[in-house]
């Protein structure tokens, strides 16, 4: 007798975990400047800090990195899943 399996496609969605926050870091791309923005969840304050740096130095370009905790959930009424899982503890 042979083993049988049934494979079906399951649709998912992905988004920011509702118990987490988006953080932003940035650094100036003008050669040798060295200006950096520490990680912050205050995105408006981050924008203001970069604009202030531009106003003081004339440096207009920044590399920004956004980070969040992603949560993947099944679209089929979250079949077999309890509510939203808690955030994992950092290692």
UniProtKB/TrEMBL annotation:
InterPro entries assigned to the protein according to its UniProt record, in alphabetical order: DUF7848 (IPR057170)
Name listed for the protein in its UniProt record: DUF7848 domain-containing protein
DUF7848 domain sequence ranges: 1-71
Source organism per UniProt: Streptomyces paromomycinus (Streptomyces rimosus subsp. paromomycinus)
Taxonomy, superkingdom: Bacteria
